[in-house]
């Protein structure tokens, strides 16, 4: 009975998310049509995210904001536990964030149009040559635009709650664009919505923003070292926060 009620509640959450997406997506498309790209698109995105988090009763807290310099552009890398990682990052990090998303998402009617209009970055994973070409296009955008990408270097959501090996593409992007890499640990999102589940649980997501790592003084051969360093920092803060949360939780 309890499980049925959770599914029923999740269906209500999903219906609200769809409605919010249609309304905010329409606003984004209209704004873009008449005014082009601008910061008002970021504001609309944040309103959309806040509505989703509020409706699903998901609280997001941020730690380490003092590690970021006001107005500086970064490349954020984070562990990936849940679909709620994206709204958690947008809610917690005060920057013009853009996601690196696989090109297939941009083909989804309405949703894909919206993320293209906002300016999220398409990455083609079809083959190595196309992946490199899309990475080069992303580098050119980062050199020109006042945006900070968020990348989940594991490549997919963790199936078991552990942090898996980071892929190197994000760190090549950081080195070529000269952006400092900010390791971000996301704790608690898997409890809200684990992989392969439709049950959304109210809860608390803790976003830990670690100190930036310089990438402009490194070359292509350093990509593995940079990836391992960022992963090590994220793992340390992730498991420390997760253990603290478990110790403080009621029996």
């Amino acid at each position: 009975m309890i499980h049925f009620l959770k599914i029923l509640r999740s269906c209500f959450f999903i219906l609200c998310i769809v409605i919010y997406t249609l309304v905010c997506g329409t606003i984004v498309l209209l704004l873009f049509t008449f005014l082009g790209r601008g910061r008002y698109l970021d504001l609309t995105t944040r309103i959309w995210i806040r509505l989703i988090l509020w409706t699903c009763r998901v609280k997001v807290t941020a730690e380490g904001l003092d590690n970021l310099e006001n107005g500086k552009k970064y490349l954020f890398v984070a562990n990936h536990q849940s679909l709620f990682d994206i709204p958690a990052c947008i809610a917690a990090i005060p920057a013009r964030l853009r996601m690196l998303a696989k090109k297939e998402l941009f083909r989804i009617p309405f949703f894909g149009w919206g993320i293209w209009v906002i300016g999220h970055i398409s990455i083609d994973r079809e083959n190595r040559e196309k992946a490199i070409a899309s990475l080069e296009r992303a580098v050119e955008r980062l050199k020109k635009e006042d945006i900070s990408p968020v990348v989940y270097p594991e490549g997919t959501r963790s199936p078991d709650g552990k942090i898996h090996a980071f892929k190197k593409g994000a760190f090549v992007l950081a080195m070529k664009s000269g952006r400092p890499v900010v390791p971000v640990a996301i704790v608690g999102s898997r409890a809200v919505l684990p992989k392969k589940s439709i049950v959304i649980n109210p809860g608390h997501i803790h976003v830990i923003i670690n100190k930036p790592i310089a990438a402009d003084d490194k070359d292509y051969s350093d990509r593995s070292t940079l990836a391992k360093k960022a992963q090590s920092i994220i793992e340390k803060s992730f498991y420390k926060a997760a253990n603290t949360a478990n110790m403080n939780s009621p029996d």
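The longest strand covers residues 181-187. The CA atoms of residues 5 and 11 lie 10 Å apart.
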